[in-house]
Design a protein that fits this description.
Helix content is about 75%, strand content about 0%. It has about 260 residues and is an all-alpha fold. It has a domain of about 170 residues. Helix 1 packs across helix 4 and helix 2 runs parallel beside helix 4. It is elongated.
Length: about 260
């Protein structure tokens, strides 16, 4: 018994995919209260729609119109949805899927990917490199800030490209790819690392202030790092813990200043 033939449909060229990805970098340029990122998404996917419906302008307008509905996601993680939407639009153009398929794909993934993107990029990766830049600036000067910024952008752009490519290649199966990355677990490690870097930055500031001896500075740094790690490991929230650390640091500085007669 012969197997059924695979459906044949038009594929978007590599150059067109590159244009779509480049446009996705401006996803939030036309953010609005009514559709949020809808205009940016429609702008990003339009080159693919033009290629798929070149011979039928009416179908192209219809396809573009269905991407003008409400859309809101993390701008980095949205690359996976853009790639997957093109995957489904190819099949819609070929008559393999109904026109609602890309919309269902977007509606299903935009919420979960927004949560993953916020948790990894905004509350973990960016603070980690912000703390790295702060410590580097204290120890090595402004070039450390430029290096930290360059590394952060290299990482986030690499992930955005990978999200887009895998979304286009796999469609709905992008969920399996994201699960394998274990981004929430990695985010937890980055947050702990950022907290440690902030502690080291505080030590660097204290050392420059020369309020404590080197032995005293080391002891305070060790104690602060240990208390901070134990607090975070036991489930303390990062932001309140940071505020508490700042208040404790200010109080310690004032106490030391009074002891040495400087205040």
């Amino acid at each position: 018994m012969s197997s059924l033939p695979r459906p044949i449909f038009l594929r978007v060229s590599g150059g067109t995919l590159a244009r779509c990805f480049f446009r996705s970098l401006f996803l939030q340029a036309a953010w609005n209260r009514r559709g949020m990122q809808n205009l940016g998404f429609a702008y990003a996917i339009d080159p693919a729609l033009c290629a798929l419906y070149r011979a039928d302008p009416e179908r192209r307008r219809e396809a573009l119109g269905r991407h003008l509905g409400l859309f809101n996601c993390h701008p980095y993680a949205a690359a996976a949805i853009l790639g997957g939407a093109i995957y489904h639009e190819e099949r819609v153009a070929g008559g393999v899927e109904p026109p609602s398929a890309p919309l269902h794909y977007k509606a299903t993934l935009q919420g979960p990917l927004a949560a993953i993107g916020d948790g990894f990029f905004w509350t973990a990766l960016r603070p980690f490199f912000g703390a790295t830049a702060a410590l580097g600036a204290l120890l090595f000067g402004w070039p450390a800030v430029a290096i930290a910024l360059a590394v952060y952008n290299a990482i986030h752009l690499t992930l955005r490209i990978a999200f887009f490519k895998e979304g286009y290649r796999r469609g709905d199966a992008i969920v399996d790819v994201l699960a394998e990355l274990s981004l929430p677990a990695l985010a937890d490690r980055l947050r702990l690392g950022a907290a440690g870097l902030c502690g080291l930055s505080a030590v660097a500031v204290a050392s420059r202030a020369d309020n404590l001896s080197r032995a005293g500075t080391l002891a305070v740094a060790t104690a602060a790092a240990l208390v901070g790690y134990l607090a975070l490991a036991r489930g303390a929230r990062l932001l309140p813990a940071a505020y508490a650390a700042i208040l404790a640091g200010v109080g310690t500085a004032l106490a030391v200043g009074r002891i040495h007669g400087r205040l």
